[in-house]
Protein 1
Amino acid sequence: MEFFLVQLLNGISYGLLLFMLSSGLTIVFSLMGVLNFAHASFYMLGAYFAYQVSRTIGFWPALVVAPLLVGLIGMAVERFALRRAHRYGHVAELLFTFGLAYLIEEAVHLVWGRVAVDYKVPAELEGPLFSILGTPYPAYRAFMMFIAVGMLVSMWLALTRTRIGLVIQAALSHPETVEALGHNVPRVFMLVFGGGAALAGLAGVIGGNAFVTDPGMAAAVGPIVFVIVVVGGMGSLAGAFYASLLIGLIQTFAVSLDWGLFGYKISQIAPVLPYLVMVAMLIVRPRGLMGTRDG
Amino acid sequence: MGKTIWIVTALVMLAAPWAFPGGFALTLLTQMGTLIIFALSYNMLLGQGGMLSFGHAVYSGLGAYITVHALNAIGKSWGWVTPLPLLPLVGGFAGLAFGVIFGYVTTKKAGTTFAMISLGIGELVYACVLMFPGFFGGEAGISTNRTVGQPLFGITFGPSIQVYYLVAAWCFACMVAMYALTQTPLGRMANAVRDNPERAEFVGYDTQKVRFLQLVLSAFFAGISGALSCINFEIVSAENVSAIRSGGVLLAAFIGGIPFFFGPVIGAIVFIFFVAALSGFTKAWLLYLGLFFCIMVLYAPGGIASLFLMQIGLARAGRLRRMALPYALAAAAALVALAGLIGLVESVYRLSDVTSDPQMVLFGLELNAKDPAVWIGSGLLLACGLLAIRFASRTVVARWDAVQQELKGASA
């Protein structure tokens, strides 16, 4: 029982982390039509920046500084490259972000080397927070959930209660009208892209030390985030939320179960489960959980 | 025109080992032949069908795995003439079979969703390959020996020159076949589905079926290239189905030029040069390759082939000489910026990797990566180069427009 509860909490915290990634990807995709292949690379950059900053001035400043830096990089990418690629259509944009993912991975190799860096959980958050039926629950996991939920609530408030949020929502469906009303739509795009990158960076700051910070982390989590967006339904935030939790729980439970299935343990086939979910979803319901478009 | 270009291609392939003698050149030529098939098959999806795939290595890699098992099975009990020349067909049909299975899922969607699903399928297959070491040999892979059976006319396929000609023959046949496919109704429909799926559907075609058929055929050729790489390297490992391979073929095809049939051929040749020539000099070669790719996406979406064709148009009109000066300016500016970039990248690398020596030789100069002068100098070079590129590109565009105006005036 306590095993189940702990795994459930772990799964939810991992799922929330995945949603921090997939929400940014979804918003950028719905607004700009750009599938940002380098989204997971921003996640990786967030972790590495946080590692670097926390070595000099500590973890708490890094929690703010690293996402801001990643957000700035994201804005620069939109302003100086994506805007140009946009002329050639969405495939060119997707290809550019694909190349960017290459570049970021190689830059990380160059600067921080090929092995994992020692990015640790801060001392204040080490150790257990409480125990569930005798099993201690790590404080850092709870902190991750707190940050993720806090970020989600503030994002929701920003999108629905602020002026810029309303402009973003309007630009989602009617960019020409918003432009005609005198708003600078390209600048909205730049801010949203930077915001999505900053969200991914924040996920990297809190995920990098909970898991591992190495040059392979972008390639490991990137395809999972894409699976989530397909399973949830392209462009649907609510769908991305449910799919993130689903995949987070599946992955967490699968690696810790040793039930047999056709002679293979579930923990052995854990890496392929998200992709099998995706394939099953495409066969049964091609538009995804909450998607509206079939095409 | 059409026939001569094929004859010239065949002659070039025949003569290449003599034009570039040496074992290393031969290895490169053989790899180019394999990659040309792979890149062309990739372009059947991206260039001709509008399907951006991030998992094309699945078909070449699984084709290679089936081939390696076929070759090992033959090796155990074959006393007859060597069947090696026909083995690529085994890989091709294996690729085709997997194309039918996976294509059923991936081609349900087009556009961006197709791209993401193809990535997911690629990861799925890669994870499966590592999960079942019994069949796939795990990380180490499965090795084989290509010199099985009795030699025919003394051809054992042991020496690499014989493998080169086997690859070249298949490469030529595949090029002809894939070109012929672009001329069939299916090839034309694939173009229509790429350009305007709605209208294609109104004409009465099932767009999903067109995408599916195009993908299955493309997987067939990918399987052939996988089989040839298996014969060439005598080993197949998980790397053959990895995202690195899928990304590599995308880079190669795009750099060459996806709007043109021959684009990916150029791309494959350039790509192998990049990999072989640069990886010997610097550990940052992937960074340079990625940068090159990004610049192509932003400034030359038609790839090298489109740049080349633009010059041919000018040369035919006899105006290429008018562009010589702006081109020379742009090239000089680009070289300055590149020198600065290389200086920075190599210094960063020397500093971050503690095992490497900060003392390095760049452009014939003895430099120390810890020396701030190197950093400042490289930074200045890069900044000046970028400014000069801005200026030079304006000159190029202005002169280009002027020449185009002249040509228009002359024809009117």
Protein 2
Amino acid sequence: MAKIVAVTGNEAVAEALRQINPDVCAAYPITPATDLMQRFAGFVSNGKVDTELVLVESEHSAMSACIGAAAAGGRVATATSSQGLALMWEMLFIAAGNRLPIVMPLVNRALSAPLNIHGDHSDSMGARDSGWIQLYSENAQEAYDNTVQAFRIAENMDIRLPVMVCLDGFIISHSIERVEYIDDKDVKNFVGEYKQMNPLLDMDKPKSYGPLILPDLYMEYKRAQHEVMTKVKDVVLNVAADFEKLSKRKYGLFEAYRLDDADIALVILNSAAGTAKDVVDQFRNKGIKAGLLKPRLFRPFPYEEVADAIKNVKAICVMDRADSFGAYGPLFIELCGVALHLQERPLMINKIYGLGGRDFMPDQAELVLNELVEIAKTGKIKTVKEYIGVRE
Amino acid sequence: MKEPLWKKLTPGSVVLEAGSAVKFKTGSWRAFRPKFIEENCIHCLFCWMFCPDMAVIVKDGKMTGFDYDYCKGCGICAFECPGKKGNKAIVMEEEGK
């Protein structure tokens, strides 16, 4: 029996970690992820889990300890945000390159400078090329569900890659929502016993992690790493199918909301998609065929599947809660990649919104959808990239 | 069709064979070569202790020379060598001279 509770996003993810009971967790506090790990540390102190919680002096050390523990043969988790992720930077690539199935909830927060503690996606977008699988979550329920599924995806014997579960800082991490928890034993059964791959602690078979690979083989290892990523989509879908049987909640590579017959559509990640769906409904009520696509799996990016989902849409606005200064937003660039798979591509614009926790309001979605109506009608784009919600 | 090399690699570049570093002969990196002068050696084995590789050959508790397949010529042994009466038992010489 599922249990319905009113909890914050952080609380929900900490609960998922309690149910999974990882072998090792090394973490360093950083707002807004602090509260997640603080709650988990409470489970450790109160004997609710038997995780070895490693106190470290920085996020760089946190990820390093996670890498060591995962190579040793343990099920490993950590969590971080923003500058913490930035400090983990070099170790992120090592976790992925060594094919270590570490699961890391990332409570999305803006990067400094200027210093800011609120939610945007500049942290995770900066780590998109680190070789980690990235899942995005609209709300606390999705953050909980994605965390549970992340272990199965990461630990799949054909994959063995680290997974980042992204949720918006404060908007989701600190807001109380209705969440359905799955029973402890069902989560444990779903995730299953941890299977090791080449554990360092297998003393009968000594081995080395992290050897020097010179130009004669480095490129082959990178080619192999890309190949593994091509298998991730199927694994994500299989895990989602099993998860649906357990929870009755359906997950895919992305969510297509009223998109089948849509003329105009928004492509938008995480919590803002919730707000935008309400506005899509309002446009539908007015007889305007609006829709929305919310990516869930951002790395690897499902280009062909997204292309198929948007093939009949006339005008699209890709909404980025992160920026690439002097370039288009990171999600927009992916949609440009999607457009390559279409014979007739939709007209596409890019809006940067909600940086540093700036609220994404329904009137912003309305403004964008109205612009899309105009673009679909005239076939003309005034400006490809624009900022919305900027103070006058 | 022949399977490409990259498909045969161990996931995560993990080396599954213990002690395989022995196959990687790093002696070719050397620009300076340690020369052993036996009459100045007091067999303190500082060279053996300080060698960052395993390039100092010790037999029956006595320094006997170098394994040039692995010695990178770092010169730490020569630096640490106390020698005998002010004369070093290890001196560095430029390769190829």
